[in-house]
Amino acid sequence: MPENLAGIGVCAGVAAGPLLRIAAAPALPPPLPVTDAAAEVDRAYAALAGVVADLERRADRAAEATAAEVLRAEAMMAGDEELREAVRERIEGGADAPHAIDAAFGTFREMFAEAGGYLAERVADLDDLRDRAVAVLLGLPMPGVPQPGHPYVLAARDLAPADTADLDPSQVLALVTEIGGPTSHTAILARALGLPAVVACPGVLGVAEHTLVQVDGTTGRVVIGAGSTFRKVADAEVAELTGPGRTSDGHAVKLLANVGSAKNVPAADEAHAEGVGLFRTELLFLDRASEPSRKEQIAAYGEVFRAMAGRRVVIRTLDAGADKPLPFLNQQGEPNPALGVRGLRVARQRPRVLTTQLEAIAAAARDSDADVWVMAPMVSTLTEATEFAAAVHEAGLPRAGVMIEVPAAALRAGDLLGVVDFLSIGTNDLSQYTFAADRMCGELADLLDPWQPALLRLIAICGAAGRDTGKPVGVCGEAAADPQLAPVLAGLGVSSLSMSPRALPGVRASLARYSYDECRRLAELALAAPDAASARKVVL
Amino acid sequence: MPTRTVAVGSASGLHARPAKIFVEAAAKAPVKVTIRVGEKKAVPAKSMLSVLALGAKQGTEVILEADGDGADEALDGLAALLAKDLDADDA
């Protein structure tokens, strides 16, 4: 008898398959007396060797060189001779293998934590290695994403970036998490990979592993015990449309792709993106102890610009801070990072980082035929926008814009368009700051729903300012990837939508179903709706 | 005993990639090499965890020691490696 669970659909599509969970870290069992110390040492060494072998296997399979290098470094830690020595000493002192391993890692853990800084952050790696070794000893699956060798639906309490670093999108059919919201890491990952996903789905962890489930990422429904195929059900209508984004009567809404590096450009091309609406430059800066050189930046930006020759590329200057802290900026210790020195605000303390980046963008732009626009994240005042635009022009770049992520900026969209050439609305942060609701807080997922009329109202202010000034106003947050929301955004005056390439065909198809007048009427109805759920029902 | 004192050249210190490169090289040396910072306890240079735990940053002086046949050559090679910026792409 099929039974349903309900959550929030965050990435459209339907898929069915056996459900598997991310294994939790094993708990240490009560200590056992050791009678044969030599055999116990062998057992402990074998477990560590198993962890090393697993990490090396994952390194061999890792698609990215950086990911492979990190995994190999971890393998070296798990296979460390001094660690084994410490384990042997503990066992000879009477500990059993799991406790000896725990204590041996504990010694290094303490040293790392004491050293502070970079090493203190590696404590989590040590804990993970210990959990893996203990899991092997106890005959439990190693913590992390399962690798059963066949396609499956992945269930978890929530997904952290570390869990998903080596997630294989050809094996994972859909994602379901117990907590999380529309802008949580799970949702963002699902859209990037084009996987149907349901978040905030209580009860999913109670489903027995290997049960067949069907996940509907549009309605948020998870049917237990239904569906017997492993296929992904595609919206047939979606695949057929290509070409520029437009309503049924030809009103243009540019469909752009969000990219992080030149690697994402083929996917954008495949989806017939008209350009790049958000080129995130953080990738180059992440996991770096020092700022990337000008030369390195020019090379990375140039790669994307050349691949997008003849098309628009909106590049965003470094968006560091909050959920993306960068080691070289020394941002630790902010009591409330989301409200701290992040985005453009970093330039208050480190103006050189911004000017170097703008110079690198300008140099890369000169060497390509792409139409390069530059925008700043986390702008909240007219002064910030004015200064940023001046810096962009100073660097020799013609088009400067700002992101609208803070309500203060949205309220003054008209004034901002007096000093910059375009606006781009980052709906994830705009939701977070408008509703005073942490993006990572699953319990508040309803507040972060992009259909919230208050959020739509702020978007409407920006759209109206765009219409009045004839300047472009885009949306590059997760809301841009919601097919049902696309006609509403167009009706609110949004002139471009930028999203993960996989979401593009669905949005294109949805836009083509409505005339521009209908879009405007839908926008009015959604704005007037009492709540997000009613707003959503406006578009069926 | 042959000894070399060298300042860490890598921008990120003796962490992550530089540590991995150094430890791999030390493991290939024909003699047992130890590394220490100041008067702290010397640790095996081929132990990734011990080398990381030194917490050596760019400019930190570390002391390499080894004994036996080929010790001098091994130390020269490892000292040169430590002095380089192993975070740089051509490393």
From TrEMBL, chain A:
Phosphoenolpyruvate binds at residues 280, 316, 428-429, 439. It is found in: Cytoplasm. The keyword Metal-binding applies. One of its GO terms (molecular function) is kinase activity. Its EC number is 2.7.3.9. The keyword Lipoprotein does not apply. This is Phosphoenolpyruvate-protein phosphotransferase. It comes from Actinoplanes siamensis. The gene is ptsI.
Automatic annotation (TrEMBL), chain B:
The keyword Calcium does not apply. It is found in: Cytoplasm. Pfam families: PTS-HPr. It comes from the Bacteria. InterPro entries: HPr (IPR050399), HPr-like (IPR000032), HPr-like_sf (IPR035895). Residues 1-89 form the HPr domain. This is HPr domain-containing protein. Its main location: cytoplasm. It comes from Actinoplanes siamensis. Keywords: Cytoplasm, Phosphotransferase system. One of its GO terms (cellular component) is cytoplasm. Coiled coil: none annotated. GO terms for biological process: phosphoenolpyruvate-dependent sugar phosphotransferase system.
